[in-house]
Design brief:
With 415 residues, the chain is α/β, with parallel strands linked by helices. 46% of the residues lie in helices and 16% in strands. The protein is built from 17 helices and 14 strands. The protein has helices at 2-17, 22-41, 56-72, 85-91, 108-118, 132-140, 181-189, 201-211, 217-223, 236-247, 263-272, 302-305, 326-329, 345-352, 362-374, 376-392, 396-410, and strands at residues 48-53, 77-82, 99-102, 120-126, 145-150, 175-178, 195-197, 227-234, 252-258, 277-279, 293-295, 311-314, 335-337, 356-358. Helix 10 packs parallel to helix 11.
């Protein structure tokens, strides 16, 4: 009853916020349309495997598993749900799923309607998704549910005296595929033993992205033989640091893929640059070699562009927090980032392995870059450390597939 009360209060708060803000308004509208969408698009003659992710980041963690199952078990259809607009709005047309929609709020009535309409034969909840009513209903119906890439910490509600009742929800999972040994130990302490340490599927995902990286002839031509720094997801404070250094070092080239691609931000970047620069959308074979800095003024290319750099800089460390370090590290290049990185496990591991480097000011950046530019063996060693970190932590997908294969054998598809 307490859990349901919290859910109803949260639902009321979101509806109230929707009157004043676009993001919750999109969520309320999307949730309202879910049941109509399911009524009209669910194939009653098919068996669905349901994947749920709160937002875009969790979706990317589950994506390797979705695509592997899609490839090896085409007899099943895929239902993908999101809770947040930041996931749904970006991936609502995701070709890897047969149906993409919001997940309605976890009220008893919503849960019964949703599970009855979707009627999944198995479900995968990614990372931090522990909706009590959904999990209880799926468990009651004998539908196996797996937690993928989940990670647990001692301060979570499950391991506090007041969360003992809520922690029972973890026993509804058929299996939990966790990221580390601490998670397994914490779960064992409350009697949850259907647990396997597999690591993080994000490593498998960035390896997939690396293998599928786009060939970008104009970027390759721009780079030539020059040592190139690729700055990804950068913000103003980041750009102040690496652009100042770049302006004073004609022996290197720079590629900037800013986090915000707006005309005002692009102009700010160009005003800081004292060397020839060019926007990617304006680049041609004739003019691209005349620039020393290439500004990526469109989305969707960054993960492929890292391949053209010898050094990477990941933005956000002087503000909201650093962005994805693995997308750069997978190419075997060192990763530089600002001080707001403490909550990012991969960044901490890269620091420990000397494949990642924290800077707190322009002097730190200058010292580090001077070392990279003057000592090629040091640069190559740092790059190997970053690449090895990704390689050594991959394989979660294979472990999960091996563990769930028996369930595929026990479920007879309807098509």
């Amino acid at each position: 009853m307490i859990y349901n009360l919290v859910i109803y209060i949260y639902l009321f708060g979101v509806k109230l916020a929707a009157l004043f803000s676009e993001k919750p308004a999109k969520m309320v509208k999307g949730h309202r349309e879910v049941f109509k969408l399911l009524h009209s698009h669910i194939d009653r003659n098919a068996r669905y495997i349901w994947f749920h992710a709160a937002s875009l980041g969790e979706f990317e963690q589950g994506r390797p598993l979705i695509e592997r199952i899609r490839r090896e078990h085409p007899e099943y259809k895929i239902l993908q749900t999101f809770f947040s607009p930041s996931g749904y709005e970006v991936r609502k047309n995701y070709a890897g799923a047969d149906l993409v929609c919001y997940l309605p709020f976890d009220t008893p009535r919503n849960v019964r309607r949703f599970v009855e309409l979707a009627n999944p034969c198995m479900a995968f909840f990614i990372k931090y998704e522990f909706w009590q009513n959904y999990l209880n209903e799926l468990h009651r119906k004998g539908i196996p549910v797996y937690s993928v890439s989940s990670i647990f910490r001692p301060n979570q509600v499950f391991f506090r005296w007041y969360g003992k009742r809520y922690s029972r929800v973890l026993k509804t999972f058929a299996h939990l595929f966790v990221q580390n040994e601490l998670s397994q130990q914490l779960l064992a302490g409350i009697g949850v033993t259907d647990v396997t340490i597999v690591g993080d599927t994000r490593f498998d995902r960035v390896l997939d992205i690396c293998r599928e990286a786009k060939q970008l002839p104009l970027v390759k031509q721009f780079k030539g033989d020059a040592l190139t720094l690729v700055a990804g997801s950068s913000w103003g404070p980041d750009e102040d640091i690496f652009i100042e250094y770049f302006n004073q070092h004609p022996e290197m080239k720079l590629i900037i893929a800013p986090h915000v691609v707006s005309e005002s931000h692009l102009k700010e970047i160009q005003e800081k640059l004292k060397r020839p620069c060019l926007r990617y959308t304006q680049a041609t074979e004739a003019n691209v070699t005349q620039a020393d800095c290439l500004i990526i003024d469109c989305y969707g290319l960054l993960s492929s562009i890292y391949r053209y750099g010898e050094i990477s800089y990941i933005g956000g460390g002087f503000g909201v927090g650093i962005h994805n370090v693995l997308e750069a590290a997978v190419y075997g290049i060192p990763v530089i980032f600002g001080p707001n990185n403490k909550k990012f496990r991969e960044a901490q591991h890269l620091l420990e392995r000397k494949g990642g480097f924290e800077i707190t000011c322009d002097a730190d950046f200058r010292t580090l870059m001077d070392r990279f530019l003057s000592d090629r063996s040091y640069l190559e060693q740092a790059g190997r450390a970053a690449g090895d970190y990704v390689q050594h932590n991959s394989g979660a997908l294979e472990k999960i597939m091996q563990a769930i294969e028996e369930d595929f054998d026990s479920i007879k598809p309807m098509i």
